[in-house]
Sequence to fold (169 residues):
Amino acid sequence: MLRILLFLTLISASGLTQSDAGFYAENKAVKYLEKTLKVKDIELGERIDFTDQLAEGRRVVAYSFHYAEGAEKYFAVFTESKGRYDMFDYLVITDEAGEIQKVKVLKYRSEHGGEIASKKWLSQFEHYAGGDLYYEEEISAISGATISAMSITRDIPKVVRIVQDYSKE
Fold:
């Protein structure tokens, strides 16, 4: 019994659980949104855990939000992807229809490939609203960050689809 409790404690502490309420909790989400959008008074709506919808088992948490009175509804999707060796966290901001407004890499943990955090490179995803998206075709290649860049390019359509499916409900 003690071994089972120890095992469950280790899994929980290592962040390997499927659902993680601490993954971009409300206060952290607001901080990143205000910084990314350069606005104050973000009003978060509901928190939606989409982790089960991404087959790879990576964490995906979204918040609906407004940042101006009477403004349209947006979604902030906090998720993670795999670089060559380490996971990295990123944020996708979409409108209610799922069109990307902004993408930002929040935490890049590896020594190599950090070039994907470049605002200019990430701006290629803005206004994407679904359909095919291919690395080295629609999205420019980055020397030294191939795996991370391919990973985020593969993930973006899945994130957009999740938001669009949710918005239809």
About this structure: Helices lie at 2-14, 26-37, 119-122, 146-168. Residues 44 and 65 are 4 Å apart (CA to CA). The chain is about 30% helix and 25% strand. Residues 146-168 form the longest helix (23 residues).
